[in-house]
Amino acid sequence: MFILNTNRDYRRPLEPADAETLGIAAAAGVERHLKYRDNNTETRLVSLPALAAEAGVAAIHIKDEGHRLGLGSFKALGGAYAVVCLVLEEAGALLGRAVDMAEFQSPAVRNVAETMTFTCATDGNHGRSVAQGASLVGARAAIFVHAGVSNERVAAIARFGAEMIRVDGSYDDSVKMAASVAEERQWTVVSDTSWPGYERIPGLVMQGYTVLVREALRQMQLPPTHVFIQSGVGGIAAAVAGHLAIVLGEDRPIFTVVDPARAACLFETARAGHPVTVPHTEPTVMAMLECYEPSLVAWRILSRVADAFMTVDEEDAVSVMKRLAYPAGGDRAIVAGESGGVGLAGLLKAVADPAIKAALSIDDRSRIFLVNTEGATDPRKYQDIVGVSPDVVDGEMAGKE
Protein backbone atom coordinates (compact mmCIF):
# COMPACT_ATOMS: atom_id res chain seq x y z
CA MET A 1 0.00 0.00 0.00
CA PHE A 2 1.19 3.53 -0.80
CA ILE A 3 -0.17 7.02 -0.20
CA LEU A 4 1.16 10.53 -0.55
CA ASN A 5 0.95 12.90 2.41
CA THR A 6 -2.22 14.94 2.00
CA ASN A 7 -2.58 16.00 5.63
CA ARG A 8 -3.40 19.62 6.40
CA ASP A 9 -0.08 20.13 8.22
CA TYR A 10 2.01 18.88 5.29
CA ARG A 11 4.87 21.24 4.49
CA ARG A 12 4.08 23.48 7.44
CA PRO A 13 7.10 24.41 9.61
CA LEU A 14 7.94 22.19 12.54
CA GLU A 15 6.65 23.26 15.93
CA PRO A 16 9.37 25.38 17.63
CA ALA A 17 9.94 22.77 20.35
CA ASP A 18 10.37 20.01 17.77
CA ALA A 19 12.70 22.16 15.67
CA GLU A 20 14.84 22.79 18.76
CA THR A 21 14.87 19.10 19.71
CA LEU A 22 15.98 17.96 16.25
CA GLY A 23 18.06 20.99 15.29
CA ILE A 24 21.71 21.43 14.38
CA ALA A 25 22.81 22.59 17.83
CA ALA A 26 21.06 19.65 19.48
CA ALA A 27 22.71 17.14 17.13
CA ALA A 28 26.10 18.71 17.81
CA GLY A 29 25.40 18.29 21.52
CA VAL A 30 24.70 14.59 21.02
CA GLU A 31 28.03 14.22 19.24
CA ARG A 32 29.78 15.87 22.17
CA HIS A 33 27.99 13.47 24.53
CA LEU A 34 29.28 10.52 22.48
CA LYS A 35 32.88 11.64 22.83
CA TYR A 36 32.72 10.57 26.46
CA ARG A 37 31.34 7.12 25.64
CA ASP A 38 33.41 3.97 25.25
CA ASN A 39 33.28 2.19 21.88
CA ASN A 40 32.16 5.36 20.13
CA THR A 41 33.01 5.45 16.43
CA GLU A 42 31.12 6.75 13.43
CA THR A 43 29.19 3.94 11.77
CA ARG A 44 29.82 3.15 8.13
CA LEU A 45 27.95 4.64 5.22
CA VAL A 46 27.89 1.76 2.73
CA SER A 47 27.54 2.44 -0.98
CA LEU A 48 25.79 -0.22 -3.08
CA PRO A 49 26.53 0.71 -6.72
CA ALA A 50 25.50 -2.64 -8.21
CA LEU A 51 22.12 -2.54 -6.47
CA ALA A 52 21.71 1.11 -7.51
CA ALA A 53 22.27 0.18 -11.15
CA GLU A 54 19.75 -2.65 -10.87
CA ALA A 55 17.20 -0.29 -9.29
CA GLY A 56 17.79 2.34 -11.97
CA VAL A 57 19.03 5.07 -9.61
CA ALA A 58 22.28 6.99 -9.36
CA ALA A 59 23.28 5.85 -5.87
CA ILE A 60 22.13 3.89 -2.83
CA HIS A 61 23.77 4.62 0.50
CA ILE A 62 22.98 2.69 3.69
CA LYS A 63 23.99 3.97 7.10
CA ASP A 64 24.88 0.73 8.88
CA GLU A 65 23.90 0.99 12.55
CA GLY A 66 24.46 -2.71 13.20
CA HIS A 67 27.55 -2.08 15.35
CA ARG A 68 26.62 1.19 17.09
CA LEU A 69 28.19 1.43 20.57
CA GLY A 70 28.32 -2.35 20.85
CA LEU A 71 24.53 -2.65 21.07
CA GLY A 72 23.73 -3.64 17.52
CA SER A 73 21.20 -0.98 16.56
CA PHE A 74 20.50 2.72 16.18
CA LYS A 75 18.60 2.58 19.47
CA ALA A 76 21.99 2.75 21.20
CA LEU A 77 21.90 6.47 20.40
CA GLY A 78 18.56 7.21 22.07
CA GLY A 79 17.72 5.52 25.35
CA ALA A 80 21.17 5.69 26.92
CA TYR A 81 21.56 9.33 25.88
CA ALA A 82 18.22 10.23 27.47
CA VAL A 83 19.09 8.42 30.71
CA VAL A 84 22.42 10.21 31.04
CA CYS A 85 20.82 13.60 30.26
CA LEU A 86 18.16 13.05 32.94
CA VAL A 87 20.73 12.02 35.54
CA LEU A 88 22.87 15.08 34.79
CA GLU A 89 19.80 17.31 35.13
CA GLU A 90 18.90 15.75 38.47
CA ALA A 91 22.49 16.07 39.68
CA GLY A 92 22.53 19.71 38.62
CA ALA A 93 19.30 20.41 40.51
CA LEU A 94 20.63 18.79 43.69
CA LEU A 95 24.12 20.30 43.46
CA GLY A 96 22.88 23.76 42.53
CA ARG A 97 25.04 24.07 39.43
CA ALA A 98 25.23 22.88 35.85
CA VAL A 99 26.71 19.40 35.56
CA ASP A 100 28.62 18.73 32.35
CA MET A 101 28.79 15.49 30.40
CA ALA A 102 32.48 15.28 31.34
CA GLU A 103 31.30 14.51 34.88
CA PHE A 104 28.81 11.78 34.02
CA GLN A 105 30.77 9.04 35.79
CA SER A 106 31.99 11.16 38.70
CA PRO A 107 31.23 10.12 42.32
CA ALA A 108 28.87 13.09 42.76
CA VAL A 109 26.79 12.10 39.75
CA ARG A 110 26.81 8.41 40.67
CA ASN A 111 25.53 9.26 44.15
CA VAL A 112 22.53 10.90 42.52
CA ALA A 113 22.06 8.15 39.94
CA GLU A 114 21.97 5.45 42.61
CA THR A 115 18.69 6.92 43.87
CA MET A 116 17.04 6.70 40.43
CA THR A 117 15.32 3.85 38.57
CA PHE A 118 14.69 4.06 34.83
CA THR A 119 12.13 1.95 33.05
CA CYS A 120 10.65 1.39 29.62
CA ALA A 121 8.83 -1.11 27.46
CA THR A 122 10.76 -2.62 24.61
CA ASP A 123 10.79 -5.01 21.68
CA GLY A 124 14.47 -5.48 22.51
CA ASN A 125 16.72 -2.72 21.19
CA HIS A 126 15.44 0.33 23.06
CA GLY A 127 15.43 -1.53 26.37
CA ARG A 128 19.02 -2.57 25.81
CA SER A 129 19.98 1.09 25.37
CA VAL A 130 18.10 2.26 28.48
CA ALA A 131 19.67 -0.53 30.52
CA GLN A 132 23.12 0.35 29.24
CA GLY A 133 22.60 4.03 30.07
CA ALA A 134 21.55 3.17 33.62
CA SER A 135 24.59 0.94 34.07
CA LEU A 136 26.91 3.70 32.82
CA VAL A 137 25.84 6.10 35.57
CA GLY A 138 25.10 3.59 38.33
CA ALA A 139 21.30 3.83 38.25
CA ARG A 140 18.79 0.96 38.33
CA ALA A 141 16.81 -0.20 35.29
CA ALA A 142 13.56 -2.16 35.12
CA ILE A 143 12.63 -3.22 31.59
CA PHE A 144 9.20 -4.48 30.52
CA VAL A 145 9.07 -6.96 27.64
CA HIS A 146 6.00 -8.40 25.96
CA ALA A 147 5.30 -12.01 25.06
CA GLY A 148 6.85 -11.76 21.60
CA VAL A 149 10.34 -10.71 22.73
CA SER A 150 12.76 -13.61 22.30
CA ASN A 151 14.77 -15.02 25.21
CA GLU A 152 17.97 -14.04 23.39
CA ARG A 153 16.91 -10.39 23.31
CA VAL A 154 15.87 -10.51 26.97
CA ALA A 155 19.28 -11.92 27.92
CA ALA A 156 21.03 -9.17 25.95
CA ILE A 157 19.25 -6.55 28.08
CA ALA A 158 19.68 -8.39 31.38
CA ARG A 159 23.47 -8.45 31.00
CA PHE A 160 23.48 -4.75 31.92
CA GLY A 161 22.00 -5.61 35.31
CA ALA A 162 18.43 -4.63 34.46
CA GLU A 163 15.43 -6.19 36.18
CA MET A 164 13.39 -7.90 33.45
CA ILE A 165 9.57 -7.92 33.73
CA ARG A 166 7.50 -10.06 31.33
CA VAL A 167 4.07 -8.78 30.26
CA ASP A 168 1.35 -10.80 28.56
CA GLY A 169 0.18 -9.30 25.29
CA SER A 170 1.72 -6.86 22.81
CA TYR A 171 4.27 -4.06 22.87
CA ASP A 172 1.50 -1.55 23.50
CA ASP A 173 0.37 -3.58 26.53
CA SER A 174 3.91 -3.45 27.90
CA VAL A 175 4.03 0.33 27.37
CA LYS A 176 0.89 0.76 29.46
CA MET A 177 2.17 -1.58 32.17
CA ALA A 178 5.54 0.21 32.38
CA ALA A 179 3.81 3.59 32.75
CA SER A 180 1.46 2.28 35.44
CA VAL A 181 4.15 0.62 37.56
CA ALA A 182 6.49 3.60 37.16
CA GLU A 183 3.83 5.97 38.49
CA GLU A 184 3.21 3.71 41.47
CA ARG A 185 6.91 3.28 42.31
CA GLN A 186 8.14 6.73 41.24
CA TRP A 187 10.39 5.38 38.54
CA THR A 188 11.37 7.47 35.50
CA VAL A 189 9.93 6.22 32.22
CA VAL A 190 12.32 6.58 29.28
CA SER A 191 10.06 5.66 26.40
CA ASP A 192 10.66 5.94 22.68
CA THR A 193 6.97 6.62 22.17
CA SER A 194 4.92 9.52 23.49
CA TRP A 195 1.37 10.14 24.66
CA PRO A 196 -0.59 13.17 25.92
CA GLY A 197 1.41 14.89 28.65
CA TYR A 198 4.52 12.80 28.02
CA GLU A 199 6.67 14.26 25.25
CA ARG A 200 9.96 15.66 26.54
CA ILE A 201 11.74 12.38 27.28
CA PRO A 202 10.75 10.73 23.96
CA GLY A 203 12.03 13.94 22.40
CA LEU A 204 15.43 13.37 24.04
CA VAL A 205 15.45 9.81 22.72
CA MET A 206 14.76 11.09 19.20
CA GLN A 207 17.37 13.80 19.65
CA GLY A 208 19.95 11.06 20.15
CA TYR A 209 19.14 9.62 16.74
CA THR A 210 19.98 12.85 14.90
CA VAL A 211 23.68 12.12 15.15
CA LEU A 212 23.45 9.32 12.58
CA VAL A 213 22.05 11.83 10.08
CA ARG A 214 24.76 14.34 10.93
CA GLU A 215 27.42 11.69 10.32
CA ALA A 216 25.82 10.51 7.08
CA LEU A 217 25.67 14.00 5.58
CA ARG A 218 29.39 14.39 6.25
CA GLN A 219 30.09 11.00 4.70
CA MET A 220 28.18 11.67 1.45
CA GLN A 221 29.62 13.68 -1.41
CA LEU A 222 26.14 14.95 -2.28
CA PRO A 223 23.01 15.01 -0.10
CA PRO A 224 20.30 12.45 -0.89
CA THR A 225 17.34 13.17 -3.11
CA HIS A 226 15.21 10.40 -1.55
CA VAL A 227 15.02 8.72 1.84
CA PHE A 228 13.14 5.56 2.86
CA ILE A 229 13.04 4.92 6.61
CA GLN A 230 11.22 2.14 8.43
CA SER A 231 8.90 3.00 11.26
CA GLY A 232 7.59 1.41 14.43
CA VAL A 233 6.08 4.14 16.58
CA GLY A 234 7.79 6.69 14.33
CA GLY A 235 10.76 7.91 16.35
CA ILE A 236 13.59 7.11 13.94
CA ALA A 237 11.62 8.26 10.90
CA ALA A 238 10.68 11.55 12.56
CA ALA A 239 14.22 12.18 13.79
CA VAL A 240 15.76 11.60 10.36
CA ALA A 241 13.07 13.49 8.43
CA GLY A 242 12.96 16.36 10.90
CA HIS A 243 16.72 16.86 11.04
CA LEU A 244 17.06 16.69 7.26
CA ALA A 245 14.27 19.25 6.87
CA ILE A 246 16.06 21.61 9.26
CA VAL A 247 19.52 21.17 7.72
CA LEU A 248 18.55 21.11 4.02
CA GLY A 249 15.43 23.28 4.02
CA GLU A 250 13.81 23.48 0.58
CA ASP A 251 16.48 21.12 -0.77
CA ARG A 252 15.44 18.35 1.60
CA PRO A 253 14.95 14.91 0.08
CA ILE A 254 11.63 13.25 -0.72
CA PHE A 255 10.93 11.24 2.41
CA THR A 256 8.95 7.98 2.56
CA VAL A 257 7.94 6.23 5.80
CA VAL A 258 7.85 2.42 5.54
CA ASP A 259 5.65 0.29 7.82
CA PRO A 260 5.16 -3.47 8.13
CA ALA A 261 1.76 -4.30 6.61
CA ARG A 262 0.83 -6.19 9.79
CA ALA A 263 1.60 -3.24 12.08
CA ALA A 264 1.02 -0.19 9.90
CA CYS A 265 0.17 2.39 12.56
CA LEU A 266 1.92 5.31 10.79
CA PHE A 267 0.45 4.41 7.41
CA GLU A 268 -3.08 4.22 8.81
CA THR A 269 -2.55 7.38 10.83
CA ALA A 270 -1.49 9.20 7.67
CA ARG A 271 -4.48 7.83 5.81
CA ALA A 272 -6.89 8.90 8.56
CA GLY A 273 -5.22 12.27 9.13
CA HIS A 274 -4.98 11.74 12.88
CA PRO A 275 -3.36 9.19 15.24
CA VAL A 276 -5.06 5.81 15.13
CA THR A 277 -4.48 2.46 16.81
CA VAL A 278 -4.46 -0.44 14.37
CA PRO A 279 -5.82 -3.86 15.36
CA HIS A 280 -3.49 -6.68 16.33
CA THR A 281 -3.38 -9.42 13.72
CA GLU A 282 -0.65 -11.95 13.08
CA PRO A 283 2.80 -11.11 14.49
CA THR A 284 5.25 -9.66 11.99
CA VAL A 285 8.77 -10.95 11.42
CA MET A 286 9.78 -7.26 11.65
CA ALA A 287 9.70 -7.55 15.44
CA MET A 288 11.30 -4.19 16.22
CA LEU A 289 8.57 -2.47 14.20
CA GLU A 290 5.60 -4.33 15.67
CA CYS A 291 3.83 -1.31 17.10
CA TYR A 292 0.12 -0.60 16.79
CA GLU A 293 -0.10 2.99 18.00
CA PRO A 294 2.10 5.90 16.83
CA SER A 295 4.09 8.28 18.97
CA LEU A 296 2.24 11.59 19.09
CA VAL A 297 5.45 13.62 18.80
CA ALA A 298 6.65 11.54 15.87
CA TRP A 299 3.34 11.94 14.05
CA ARG A 300 3.32 15.69 14.64
CA ILE A 301 6.71 15.87 12.90
CA LEU A 302 6.01 13.37 10.13
CA SER A 303 2.68 14.97 9.26
CA ARG A 304 4.74 18.01 8.27
CA VAL A 305 7.92 16.61 6.72
CA ALA A 306 7.14 13.12 5.37
CA ASP A 307 6.09 13.06 1.72
CA ALA A 308 4.70 9.53 1.49
CA PHE A 309 3.80 6.44 3.50
CA MET A 310 3.90 2.82 2.39
CA THR A 311 3.85 -0.75 3.68
CA VAL A 312 5.91 -3.84 2.96
CA ASP A 313 5.07 -7.50 3.49
CA GLU A 314 6.75 -10.27 5.44
CA GLU A 315 8.49 -11.74 2.42
CA ASP A 316 9.89 -8.30 1.52
CA ALA A 317 11.69 -8.04 4.87
CA VAL A 318 13.10 -11.55 4.60
CA SER A 319 14.19 -10.98 1.00
CA VAL A 320 16.24 -7.87 1.81
CA MET A 321 17.97 -9.59 4.74
CA LYS A 322 19.23 -12.22 2.30
CA ARG A 323 19.94 -9.69 -0.43
CA LEU A 324 22.16 -7.66 1.88
CA ALA A 325 23.91 -10.77 3.18
CA TYR A 326 24.55 -12.08 -0.36
CA PRO A 327 24.97 -8.93 -2.46
CA ALA A 328 25.45 -9.06 -6.22
CA GLY A 329 27.97 -7.31 -8.38
CA GLY A 330 30.69 -6.81 -5.81
CA ASP A 331 28.61 -4.74 -3.39
CA ARG A 332 29.57 -4.95 0.25
CA ALA A 333 27.65 -7.41 2.45
CA ILE A 334 25.60 -6.00 5.35
CA VAL A 335 24.20 -7.86 8.35
CA ALA A 336 20.63 -6.59 8.68
CA GLY A 337 18.24 -7.92 11.29
CA GLU A 338 14.57 -8.59 10.64
CA SER A 339 13.72 -4.89 10.82
CA GLY A 340 17.04 -3.47 9.66
CA GLY A 341 16.52 -3.53 5.90
CA VAL A 342 12.86 -2.51 5.75
CA GLY A 343 13.67 0.89 4.25
CA LEU A 344 15.43 -0.91 1.40
CA ALA A 345 12.41 -3.19 1.02
CA GLY A 346 10.31 -0.06 0.57
CA LEU A 347 12.65 1.33 -2.06
CA LEU A 348 12.67 -1.91 -4.05
CA LYS A 349 8.86 -2.05 -4.04
CA ALA A 350 8.72 1.59 -5.11
CA VAL A 351 11.04 1.23 -8.10
CA ALA A 352 9.21 -1.94 -9.21
CA ASP A 353 5.88 -0.09 -9.37
CA PRO A 354 5.75 2.54 -12.14
CA ALA A 355 2.99 4.52 -10.42
CA ILE A 356 4.85 4.75 -7.09
CA LYS A 357 8.14 5.48 -8.85
CA ALA A 358 6.53 8.36 -10.74
CA ALA A 359 4.75 9.69 -7.66
CA LEU A 360 8.09 9.89 -5.83
CA SER A 361 9.96 11.28 -8.86
CA ILE A 362 12.55 8.51 -8.75
CA ASP A 363 14.78 8.34 -11.83
CA ASP A 364 18.36 7.59 -12.86
CA ARG A 365 19.58 10.74 -11.10
CA SER A 366 18.11 9.82 -7.71
CA ARG A 367 20.43 9.39 -4.74
CA ILE A 368 18.83 7.16 -2.08
CA PHE A 369 19.62 7.22 1.64
CA LEU A 370 18.61 4.30 3.88
CA VAL A 371 19.40 3.19 7.43
CA ASN A 372 20.14 -0.38 8.46
CA THR A 373 18.57 0.13 11.86
CA GLU A 374 19.77 -3.13 13.39
CA GLY A 375 22.25 -5.92 12.92
CA ALA A 376 21.65 -9.47 14.10
CA THR A 377 20.27 -8.60 17.54
CA ASP A 378 18.98 -12.17 17.71
CA PRO A 379 21.77 -14.17 16.02
CA ARG A 380 19.91 -17.48 16.14
CA LYS A 381 16.86 -16.02 14.39
CA TYR A 382 19.11 -14.31 11.85
CA GLN A 383 20.75 -17.62 10.96
CA ASP A 384 17.37 -19.34 10.70
CA ILE A 385 16.18 -16.73 8.19
CA VAL A 386 19.34 -16.04 6.19
CA GLY A 387 20.86 -19.52 6.34
CA VAL A 388 24.23 -18.39 7.60
CA SER A 389 25.48 -16.87 10.85
CA PRO A 390 26.03 -13.12 11.10
CA ASP A 391 29.69 -13.81 11.89
CA VAL A 392 30.13 -15.37 8.46
CA VAL A 393 28.57 -12.31 6.78
CA ASP A 394 30.73 -10.01 8.91
CA GLY A 395 33.72 -12.03 7.80
CA GLU A 396 32.80 -11.42 4.17
CA MET A 397 32.60 -7.72 4.93
CA ALA A 398 36.02 -7.73 6.57
CA GLY A 399 37.47 -9.54 3.56
CA LYS A 400 36.51 -6.64 1.30
CA GLU A 401 38.11 -3.97 3.45
Automatic annotation (TrEMBL):
Q: Which InterPro entries match?
A: DiNH2opropionate_NH3_lyase, TrpB-like_PALP, TrpB-like_PALP_sf
The cofactor named in the record is:
pyridoxal 5'-phosphate
Q: What is this protein called?
A: Diaminopropionate ammonia-lyase
Which Enzyme Commission number(s) are on file for it?
4.3.1.15
Q: Name one GO molecular function term.
A: diaminopropionate ammonia-lyase activity
Organism the protein comes from: Neorhizobium lilium
Presence of the UniProt keyword Ribonucleoprotein in the record: no
* Tryptophan synthase beta chain-like PALP domain span: 39-358
